[in-house]
Amino acid sequence: MKASRTSATQDNPATTSSTSSPTSSAAVLPIINYIESEISSLYVAAETSDIDEAPPIFSPKAYLEIYTRVHEYDIATRAQDNGVADKHLHRWLDSRIRYYCTSMRKRIFDSHGNKTDVTNSSFFRTLLTTYMSCYRKFCRLATLVGNLLRSWTRHGLRREKGENTYVASVEEMHQIAWRQEVLGNYARGPSPKDGLKELKNAIAVLVEADPEEGEEDPALVKDVVKSLAVLGIKVEI
């Protein structure tokens, strides 16, 4: 599936650019708008497609065009007096990733029927299966976006964050957003929407479930636990 360009992004608040600020450079503004539009089209296409469908792709020509524009943006913003808002692209990308994660959270946790029947292993099996499908797709999407923004990650992101501070890669930005927006796992403690707790409950149910009911349960549980470990979350089973 090829990513749609921009028509599907009009109602998405995360796609709204702040580059209309009078401080933005007239020369850089079209580049920023182009990058945001094309990157956003990837998230929109992924949001609206089936969870088991591979992330959208660009043709080699379109991919190279985006990569080139990102490189142009990086070069253009190296000058300190070009008028481009500080940290603009970083803030926009973080917002866009979090918007996608919020959408995935609803898809994972809010669409599987009766949560009150804690003995229903099929519910929890579906929950974990859906979670893994969404997470795998998200990881592939993060890699694609990271590759497109590679030149900015190496230079521009460090400038926008500060030369003397730790700078998370684009892929790490995705991991942080997923951990917080999907799992509700913040440094200050769990959020009221504690997705991690729901996953742990599901894992506990399947560990104790009748093996004859779900032959694939051990592998599914193992996959979920490994995915959480990648995010820095340890779950004992």
From TrEMBL:
Name used for this protein in its record: Cullin repeat-containing protein
Organism of derivation: Aureobasidium pullulans
Polar residues: bias regions: 1-12
Compositionally skewed regions (Low complexity) per UniProt: 13-24
Region feature (Disordered): 1-24
Alphabetical list of InterPro entries matching this protein: Cullin_repeat-like_dom_sf
Superkingdom of origin: Eukaryota
